Sequence to fold (127 residues):
Amino acid sequence: MHQPIVVIISANIEWEVLKTVLPHPPANSSPLGQWFEIDQKIGSTVEPVLFFHGGWGKIAAAASAQYVLDRWSPRLLVNLGTCGGFEGEIEKGTIILAERTLVYDIIELMGDPAQISNEVRNQKTRP
Fold:
């Protein structure tokens, strides 16, 4: 089994635009979204690149990323598209490599919001 480069696209509009600008075979279906694979010239070599529509929201993004990892074992996984942010904390266009994430909205519904707020605040101040 080859290890393609996989590009995950979350938003519906971004997926539709991608399909209009990138020549591709008919999309395949999976339990978590559509996908197609093309051969793309990267540098001096031609590489298999798989494009996967994972859906929007952090839970759909996490599920589709795990599905892609389990099914194709990509040598590179790229999440292309929009995401939320924290105004005033980073500059527009900054590339962020996360070391840890927190699904705060689900935890707040299940636990004590004040405790979660303190945990988030403490994480933000750590180096």
